[in-house]
Structures are given as structure tokens and as C-alpha cells.
Amino acid sequence: MNQKQFTLHHGDCLDALRLMPDCSVDAIVTDPPYGLSFMGKKWDYDVPSVDVWAECLRALKPGGHLLAFAGTRTQHRMAVRIEDAGFEIRDMIAWVYGSGFPKSLNLKDEWQGWGTALKPALEPITVARKPLIGTVAENVLQHGTGAINVDGGRVGFVSDADRKESTAKNQHADFGTQPMTNNNVYGDYSMIQPANYNPPGRWPANFIHDGSEEVVGLFPQSNGGAFPKKSNIPTGKHYDGGWGAVDNKERTEMGSGSAARFFYCAKASKADRDAGLDGSHSKQMDESRKQGNPGGDNPRNRGVQKRTNFHPTVKPTDLMRYLCRLVTPPNGIVLDPFNGSGSTGCAAVLEGFQYIGIEREAEYIAISEKRIQNALERKNQVPPKLF
Question: Which of 301, 304, 313, 320 is nearest to 263 (CA)?
Fold first, then answer.
């Protein structure tokens, strides 16, 4: 294992966190247990305790950000515990997708057509920050933390029409309101030199989607915000001229629709989950659910397939790259106290960050080490375009 670029700790996260030095990491990006008893897993019996988040707070530098996934049913408990530990809740990012499968008890007879659940199509990500020391500017100068990487998270314009629509509509003066700060600047929107408003892409939003037709169809059509009519463009693209920029052929296939204004990333593919695991042992994830489920890579069948990476809740690497880049300063250290199969670690090393992962299950440590090492080797072979 490359100790300089990434380190994996096997053990309970609370025990491992207590051994970490104060103010030693720059960002925490994690997919913790949702408290839903997912697939009967014991580790998912509850959301992490206040004690866990308090140790995360201690390990973070002042102004460091925490991004923590949650389930819609237990997001309130996750956010409250994070806040009770001493974090400031700054926002919530919604990751919206079209591939969720409803787990509903469907009624019969005179109640035919009634059920017990909505289709899952959203996972909230709590955005929290350790309190600053002084102002944001002072904190950033001293610790490198406290702000988010706006330019690193921008969604590039699809076309000149898209750029013109954004710059014309989003100058603050066009809304007939005054900026909220005394320096006459509100985000991108300068009151002093509106003619010079020329950002490299749209401001990152608290919304991420998977590019599926189901999600794209929810957005109103517009002339400027072009987006593919079909979700056949590779995952993680956001039209910025950096990694994932579309080519001319893909541009000609685009229809119209405002969904292009948001970063999008599909759920983890089999190739993404299993990268670096060639020759590894495969495992049936849940033998008890074998009967009556469809084949293929179907969400309903996730528990019964044989997989090399048999962790049940793998996040896509492109999504984790985007999140790591959004809140981690250059050459920073990313911590994930709920490492799982190492998606955050893969993302962190691909973005050039150092990574520390903590995982209780030994079988996931083995998977993580291979996946992250593979990501590190791929990065060294073809360095990613950072922006």
C-alpha cells in the first residue's frame, strides 16, 4: 500500500478517529450508514452517533467541510447529530436519479393500486462546516479551508446560447434587487462591471442528477440550456472543457432542456465498482433473496448477484471526485470514516489528494486497497485534467 497517497485503517471508526491528531485533515467526504437496516446489514442499524461526528469535527481543520450522504427517511437524524456535534449546517445537496426501484407492499382486492412506498429517486448530502477562526479570508489564509472550490465545480456552458442566457439572466441587476454585501458583488453577479461578467461555467448548484430521461424530463425546456435527449453520454460529464467535456458529435445529438445547468453523474456501473479487482474472489451478496428477482444489473437484484465488489451501496467514483474537489484545497487530505469499498479513496487519489479511510469490515478493506491502488496507478499513467 502507498502510505503517502492513501492509508486504510481497519477497525471501528470511533476508535480510529480518537487516535487522529487534532486539525489534521482538510475535508471529510463520506457515505455513512443511513440507519435503514439495508439488506439486513448490522452496520446499518442507525445513523452515526454524535460522538462519531464530534471526533470528525476535532480531526478537521477549522473551516473544513463535511459532506455526508443520507437516506431521505433518516436525513433529519443525520443532520441533527452532525449539528449537535458542533458543525454548522451550510446546505444540502440533492443527488437525484431515475434508477431507483420502489420497495412497496402492494395491496390487493378492493385496495388494488395502493402501496406503501414512493420510488426512491433522491439521496440528500448534508453540507456542514467546522466553525471558522476569524473571517473566511483569515481562515483560508491560515488553514487553507473554509471556502468551497467554485471554479472547480462549475458546470460548463454547452453553447454560446447557453452562455448568453446565463450571463444575461443571472446578473443581479436584472432582477431589480440590490446585492446583499457592501462591496456590490453577489456571487458572479457584479453590479460594478456587469459587461465583464464572463465566468467559465455555471455556478455549482446544490443539485446533482444522473442524466436519465426520467430526471431530464422533469425540467422545463429552454433554448440555452441544451442537454442530451438520451442518457447515453458517459457518466460524470458536465461540459466544462475539462475531464468529461463533450465532443462535437455529442454536441450535435443534444436537444434542448435546462438540465444541463447541473452536474450529472449516473449510479456506479459494474466497471466502476470492479475496477482493479480482476481475479478477486466474488461473492453472492444475499442468498436469501435469490428467488423471484430479475437478472442483470437491476437495482432490485443487487442483493442476489455474484460480485467481485460485493459492497451493497457503492457510490460512483465520478460523483465522489466532484464532491472531493468541491471542498478540498489543493494537495489536501480527505478523510472517510465509513470507507466501505473505497469509492471516496479512488476519487481522492484521482484528484491528487491524500486519503485516509476507516473501515470496520475486513472484506471491504481488501476490496478498497485494490480499487484505490488501481485508481492511483491509472492516475499516474494518464493524469486527470484538473480545473
Answer: 320
How far is 335 from 337, CA to CA, in rounded Å? Answer: 6
Per-residue HEC secondary structure of the chain comes to CCCCCEEEEECCHHHHHHCCCCCCEEEEEECCCCCCCHHHCHHHCCCCCHHHHHHHHHHEEEEEEEEEECCCCCHHHHHHHHHHCCCEEEEEEEEECCCCCCCCCCCCHHHCCCCCCCCCCEEEEEEEECCCCCCHHHHHHHHCCCCCCCHHHCEECCCHHHHHHHHHHCCHHHHCCCCCCCCCEECCEECCCHHHCCCCEECCCCEEECCCHHHHCCCCCCCCCEEECCCCCCCCCCCCCCCCCCCHHHHHCEEECHHHHCCECCCCCHHHHHCCCCCCCCEECCHHHCCCCCCCCCHHHCCCCEECCCCCCCCCHHHHHHHHHHHCCCCCEEEECCCCCCHHHHHHHHCCCEEEEEECCHHHHHHHHHHHHHHHHHHHHCCCCCC
pLDDT of residue 283: 57
Q: Return the bridge partners of 6, or none.
A: 355
Structural domains in the chain, sorted by start:
6-151+267-381 (3.40.50.150), 155-203+211-261 (no CATH)
| pTM of the complete model | 0.78
Torsion of CA 82, 119, 122, 98, to 10 degrees: 160
Distance of CA 87 to the CA centre of its chain: 19
Percent of the chain with pLDDT over 90: 43
Q: Name the stretches of the chain with pLDDT < 50.
A: 1-3, 38-39, 43-44, 172-185, 190-194, 224-257, 281, 284-304, 310-311, 383-387
Residue type, 337: P
C-alpha cell at 111: 385496495
Radius of gyration of the chain (CA): 22
DSSP bridge pairs for 68: 30, 126
pLDDT of residue 169: 59
> 305 and 285 in contact (C-beta within 8 Å)?
yes
Angle, helices 343-350 vs 362-381, to 10°: value is 20
Angle between helices 343-350 and 317-327 (to 10 degrees): 60
